[in-house]
Amino acid sequence: MMRTEADALPTLARESTGVSRYITRSTAIQSAVVAATVILVFAPILPIFYQALIDRPLYDDGQQFTLANLTDLLQSPNFWSVAQNTLVFAAATTIIAQVLGTTFAILIGRTDLPFKSFFAELLIWPLYISSLVLGFGWFMVYGPSGFVTLWVQSQFGEAPWTLYSITGMSIVAGISQMPLAMLYGLGSTALSNPQLEDAARSCGAGPWRTLRSVTLPLLMPSILYSSLLNFTIALEMLSIPLIFGEPARIGFFTTLLYTQGISTPKPNYGLVAAGALILLAIVMLLVFLQNRLLRNSQRYVTVGGKASRPKTLALGRWRLWALAFVSVYVVLFVILPTAVLFLRAGVSFLSPFVPFWTLFTLSHFHDIISFPAYVRSIVNTIIISVVGGFGATFFVAMIALVARRSKFPAADKLEYVAMIPRSIPGLVVGIGFFYALVLLPPLGWLRNTIFVLMVAYTMRYIPTGYGAISPALVQISTDMDRSARTTGADWWTTVRLVILPLIRPALFSSFALMFIHFFKEYSAAVFLFAPGSEVIGTTLLQFWVAGDMGRVAALSTIQIAVTVAFIYGIRKLLGVKIYG
Amino acid sequence: MDRRAFMLGTGAAILAAGSARAQNAAFPGYYPADYAKIVEAAKKEGRLLIYSSMTTDQWSGVVARFRELYPTIRVETLDLGTSEITERYLAERGSNSATADLLATGPEGFIEPQRRGELVDYASPERAHLAPWSLPSPGLYTFAIDPVLFVWNKAVLPENLVPKSFEDFVAKVKANPQVFNKRITTYGADTGAYGYTMNYAFAKHHGEKAWRWYEEIGPMTRLERSSGPMFEKVTTGEYAMAYLSGSGSPWNALRDPARAKVIGWSFIADGTPMMTRSVGVMKGASNPNAARLMVDVMCSLEGQKGLAKGQRTPVRPDVSAADVGGAYTYTEVVKQVGEANIIPVGYDAGVETNYNSFIARWRKAYGIG
User: Fold this and answer.
1) Residue B15: pLDDT over 80
2) Could you give all domains of chain B from N- to C-terminal order, each with its CATH number?
3) Contact assessment for residue B228 and residue A548, using Cβ atoms and an 8 Å cutoff
4) Which residue on chain B is closest to A349 by alpha carbon?
5) Is the complex ipTM higher than 0.90?
6) B10 to chain A nearest CA, in Å?
7) CATH architecture label of A22-51+362-580
8) Contacts of residue A57 in chain B, CB cutoff 8 Å?
9) Each residue's pLDDT tens digit, A296-305
């Protein structure tokens, strides 16, 4: 099929048959992207695979191949009940995150909701800080002695919720992952085609019918990508299970791995690596299912050759209800848990038994800025997030373009490779990179620099960035590529001048996600950082382990302030409007 | 020899003696004569890298003392989780990469390096001034302790329910489930080296009695993994009380008088486990001389005072309460609890071999799984 098309259009032949016959600028770029992706993903993963299959730590002599790590894991006490808890938690988290995220994406991206750009800023906040810290904010508000819980108890006798249950944890995790679904959705709604909705309306469909039959199905690619990611993030989430699951004795897959493999007097990385293999198998299965669901991808094309003007849907009499819903959500689930963190940062301690206004202090902030190592961790994190974030976004955009928009042989398999990192827990990524660097002596100098952190973070968050860009590509008709090509542009000129500008909102979403995740990452850094390459995440973890919750809160406050400022500033700088 | 040569000779001798005295001024007389050689070699190395689970500011006091003596040597500390300290060292060592000169961590962190012969058998000149218990094995120096406590919320726990001993605590929990059930907390023995080694020593000290206690209070306990959430939840009253809790966070917090009104604490009269932190020069050190100097500083009187500034509890017997601003020292803790009621948490071979059976029994007593 490809061959005949090429024969018929000799001018395009060089492009479409790929590397097998000719080397052009475009195929050279495509090959480089494929090679870089494969190396970046597999360099840290191969040591992990190897570790999973040997009987002792990688650094020891006399290794023997064995399946014992895998069988030990499967036979560990409660493995199956733990697996069940994990699946229920991951499914519930995903459903909550997707339903809320999609709703907000439509309200903000497609409707005339009042103050929507203000809400859009606030709704992303839970993503700005690590879920460890967010969980802390939640128990200060909604825990058994939380402010809201105590107030509700004083009014009604008892508070009808508990965070120490799978339901409670799923709500916290779902709300903290909601912004991912929302940002993906916004990337899609920015490319929506109001003509399709108009067509439905003119056939007599009411607003709900239009929503159900036109708007939502068109968001399907972005919903599927963010579901996949949120599900796997929940599978490998450690922080919320540690904060709320452990005291209530609810076991999860990652707490099991962490407890038996890492946080024990006798660490067993083989077990952890075996756990990563299981996660990998699950993620590959999910990517396969997702590809099946998106097989007919031209159904989702909304941006074609014809110009159309984005038009928002009028909510009519629902406008105030929507406003009330979003406001209540923002106050209860965004403002309260973050405000309590800000408050905790500014007081010596928080307790219902002492009025907090007698306890104000700036000492936590003062402690942070008076130690060079802590200040350096903030500066390093900003550099990593800005420079690394741009680099990673560009790289991921190239992966998505090759996977979805090129005729490179087996380009569709590239998506599987791009999704692999999502299945590897962060700490394991760090260990993998550590070994990749020490086993390849020419790269040894990279250790102890922030560059290695940028590379490791990029690898870890390829799927997150990819998921923001790929759905947008699905929405853009391949007619665009073809018309550019008939005017003589090669692949590289086409994607650079036509495709990339069209997906600018998705590129920005991807950058924002990279920036946010790089800014708060800690697990991948634990094995890679060194004096001089400290980052906020590792400093935060140190404060946490030392029990210094005032400093944890103060550093998180700085983290939120810097993230808000940068995301806002860069969006203005690039002139991207993603909120309708 | 003519007169001139004699004059020159004695002059040189006096000068030499003078400079030797100046050199030794910072060191007590009991330091060996050739100590200056280590100092010179360390100055050539110029830097020092430590892996520990102490934050930069917990290090700052003792590092300041080190810098006072050796201003040209740069000290870098890397604050890692307890298992990462050892694993990272072993992995770097195993792959011949640059690694730490010193490890400073709890006993469990040294089990594997010791077995692999990774510790340098350095005899510090401060040895004679340290208590024998603080020298667990050749090359290892215990520099700080962390007594394990009862910590409670005064607003939640009525005064008559404040336990006087562990035995009393178990009795009170049993008699007052409405106050204690799901509102007491401790570290899980199965979720980290700290909780495990401490519970292991505690159960070994009390024998079968400890297991009966675990069975009574275990099912009513909520387990925490780190001191931050544990202590924060005691402060808000979510937990009435933490038992077998570390002393770092509470003692630090109680410097604040407002917080002292909410939080109460005590040693455990019938058995206070004593966690320890030790330091050792590693075979993989790139700066072995600077590492030796740091061991000596950490064990010296001034160094111990510096550690106390970073809220570490000193172990050296001659550190007085006045030296550390009225904070606790090992001597002071022993005076209050009584020698017989100190449970050393240390280098017991059984810690490693009995791990699986201990954890299985502990989980059963606590009703987990």
Assistant:
1) no
2) 31-143+277-331 (3.40.190.10), 149-267+343-365 (3.40.190.10)
3) yes
4) B259
5) no
6) 49
7) Orthogonal Bundle (1.10)
8) 87, 90-91, 94
9) 777 788 777 6
